[in-house]
Write a structure and sequence with these properties.
By secondary structure, the protein is of the alpha+beta class. The protein is about 30% helix and about 30% strand. It has 17 helices and 33 strands.
Length: about 700
């Protein structure tokens, strides 16, 4: 009876706190303002109740310490803002096909990504209404990154990137030691009604603007990742034992005497996969895909796991990695280093020499890595058939080729775009841009990782009552995107069959085979990739279109991806008939991991863009061949052929005509000359200017000077 009374009291308190906010709809209040109106409830209890109401989606928390009860007017629309480079914004509304454009003067005190309420004002004689922000519901971010600039006795922060179009005023008492030219993390505080600029407070000084480490850390912070782990997390990692006990080895299948090696990039520090090879008495091959057993060291809900959940992924910048796990784990305990015993979770396959799977099993294992190959080392052995484990590598590569051919025959898509990497000096400044060459060694490892991922997903789905794994989903492209690409490809003489998903894949593969390694390939392959949907994580098993797999989940990189760690735990639960965590949270974890992956990808691209701008600063005034990679209503993106650096020719800079963007045709056309610019078109450009702070490169068309 007492417990029921306690629950009733708590429910009544929740209602009282909610009523305070409901009495002042759309007004942000802090816990003290709310607590003053319910004196019978302690401030501590008020704070706890507010957090619960936020978790239950009954109220919003627009920024730390502020709470709001949202009440919409009948003519308000809720959505998230996506700003463009000119300061205009688009309201992205769920289940609304077209975004709503909001001009720069009508965005109130909102910033990119904020959830806002918008009203539409219809004017007689105009086909489209004027949209304007009425209030910010939830801030997308609490902190931002920028450079401190002093103007007389005043200090401002100029935000990084091109999506925030105002500088922030910083009162001297809120500089916290920052000086002119510092790269900083700052917090938005307020935008007083009569103030020209929003007010901010400096939180962290990253270093001097322009210094490589400061700029890379600024990019990491910009996308919401931490460069360091807390002392508590680091301490917990240091407590983990390095020595593998005899008792633990006894629980596992022992692969220490079976030939095992790793193949990774030359500069890799975390080796999360190894391959073992042996010929069975029946002449078949037993191939083991051994993955670092992170789940042995990181248990559900511990402090390291909580940090890994939050990060969800490692972040790979041009010159550094921001790991998901502390280095004690990622580079030491879990890394499958050469000439050391390691704990692994393994997918073990029996195959014939044609790559047919005869049998498979999963097991917790212990391995001993006999050799560490770089990709270049392994490729040299494969190509010359001489060197360490030459016979094993030859057989493994031949089987991988059979697996790859079978995938393509089944409808997988074969994209082979050229990627580039920067050569950096000791200060992190790019001195050259060189292509990354994917050869057989890379493709061999890829095939065996795909095989393990596929079979883990298939086994858990078919053998364990359709278990809700964090599946890796890749949906087929929409008919609109397929048709759009088919029309572009036809201009180059390639017919793309859009009658079915499989026909589309087959015709793209046929086209790629003809154009790979040519300028035409550099044009069409990126456009074909853009026609595809983005892959993401979900607990719903739908399949992977690009790989032509009915079952697919990530299993092979638990050091750097949290969904892989979930998959490890669920596979072990299945093997041991237990349940180590709440499976009801899988979809939530999958969704969070997808969002973090998108942020990590954006951070990686931002670091690449920064280095592109830094590199192209040396080539102002010089000419290059380029390919149009995008068209917008304010300019034309061009990618330089020889180094993949991308810049923009702004429409306002184009001479000899007035140019207009035609969104339905995705082209820019001259009003008088009718000259057109469209995706994939080859052009000649000159480097006009570079802006490191905004990460922009400006080009001019040579023939329009």
């Amino acid at each position: 009876m007492k417990k029921r009374n306690n629950r009733t009291r708590k429910s009544n308190q929740n209602d009282e706190v909610l009523q305070v906010l409901a009495n002042s709809p759309n007004k942000a209040l802090n816990y003290k303002q709310i607590g003053a109106q319910v004196p019978q409830i302690s401030y501590k209890e008020v704070s706890q109740i507010l957090e619960q109401l936020v978790n239950d989606n009954q109220i919003k928390q627009p920024e730390i310490g502020k709470y709001i009860f949202e009440r919409l007017s009948e003519d308000e629309i809720i959505g998230k803002l996506d700003f463009n480079a000119r300061g205009d914004a688009y309201l992205v509304v769920e289940n609304l096909d077209d975004d709503i454009k909001i001009k720069s003067g009508d965005t109130l005190d909102s910033f990119d990504g904020d959830e806002v309420a918008v009203k539409l004002n219809y004017t007689k004689g105009k086909t489209k209404p004027r949209a304007f922000v009425t209030r910010v519901i939830t801030r997308a971010r609490e902190t931002y990154v920028g450079r401190v600039s002093a103007g007389g006795n005043s200090f401002f922060v100029i935000p990084d990137g091109h999506k925030i179009h105002t500088d922030f005023y910083v009162p001297k008492e809120r500089l916290n030691g920052a000086t002119d030219g510092d790269k900083v993390i700052f917090k938005y505080r307020d935008w007083p009604a009569k103030a020209k600029n929003p007010y901010a407070e400096i939180l962290t000084i990253l270093g001097r603007s322009g210094e490589n480490t400061a700029e890379m850390h600024a990019i990491v912070a910009e996308f919401g990742f931490d460069t360091q782990f807390s002392d508590a997390v680091e301490h917990e990692a240091e407590l983990l034992p390095k020595k593998i006990s005899a008792q633990e080895i006894a629980k596992r299948e022992d692969f220490r005497k079976i030939t095992t090696f790793t193949i990774d990039p030359a500069d890799a520090k975390d080796f999360d996969d190894a391959l073992s090879f042996q010929i069975l008495p029946n002449g078949n091959i037993e191939l083991g895909v051994h993955i670092a057993d992170v789940s042995h060291y990181v248990t559900p809900g511990d402090i390291i796991d909580q940090e890994a959940v939050d990060r969800a992924t490692s972040v790979y910048l041009v010159d550094r990695t921001i790991p998901m796990l502390p280095e004690r784990l990622s580079n030491e305990l879990c890394s499958l280093r050469p000439h050391e015993e390691s704990l692994t979770f393994s997918a073990i396959f029996e195959l014939d020499h044609k790559g047919t799977i005869k049998n498979y099993r999963f097991a917790k294992t212990v391995i001993y890595s006999d050799h560490r190959f770089s990709y270049e080392d392994a490729q040299e052995v494969i190509a010359n058939k001489v060197g360490p484990y030459a016979a094993e590598l030859e057989t493994m590569n031949n089987i991988a080729l059979e697996l790859k051919n079978a995938r393509y025959k089944n409808g997988a898509i074969n994209f082979e775009t050229t990627e580039f990497r920067f050569v950096l000096d000791d200060k992190g400044v790019p001195t050259a841009v060189i292509p990354k060459v994917r050869k057989d060694a890379h493709k061999m490892i890829e095939e065996y990782m795909l095989l393990a991922n596929k079979y883990v997903a298939m086994h858990l789905y078919t053998k364990n009552d359709k278990m809700p794994l964090p599946y890796r989903l890749h949906e087929p492209p929409s008919i609109e995107k397929m048709t759009e690409f088919a029309e572009t490809a036809l201009e180059f003489g390639h017919k793309i069959d859009t009658s079915s998903n499989k026909a589309y894949s087959a015709s793209i593969n046929e086209m790629v085979a003809k154009i790979d390694g040519t300028i035409e390939g550099d044009i069409l392959q990126p456009l074909a990739i853009r026609s595809m949907e983005k892959a993401y994580y979900t607990s719903k098993k739908i399949g992977h279109f690009g790989l032509a797999f009915d079952y697919y989940a990530h299993f092979t990189s638990p050091i750097r991806r949290y969904p892989d760690l979930i998959t490890h735990r669920m596979l072990q639960d299945y093997l041991t008939k237990q349940k180590s965590f709440d499976y009801g949270n899988v979809e939530k974890m999958a969704s969070h991991s997808s969002k973090q992956e998108q942020k990590a990808t954006s951070a990686e691209r931002a670091s690449i863009k920064y280095k592109q701008v830094e590199y192209m600063t040396n080539f102002k005034g010089e000419e290059f061949d380029g390919i149009i990679s995008g068209v917008t209503d304010w300019g034309i993106f061009v990618e330089i052929v020889e180094n993949k650096c991308e810049g923009m020719v702004r429409l306002r800079d184009m001479k000899g005509d007035h140019y207009t963007f035609l969104p339905e045709k995705k082209k820019v056309i001259g009003d008088r000359t009718k000259k057109t610019f469209s995706m994939g078109q080859q052009v000649r450009i000159r480097v006009k200017n570079t802006d490191l702070a905004k990460r922009n490169i400006d080009f001019m068309f040579v023939e329009q000077d």
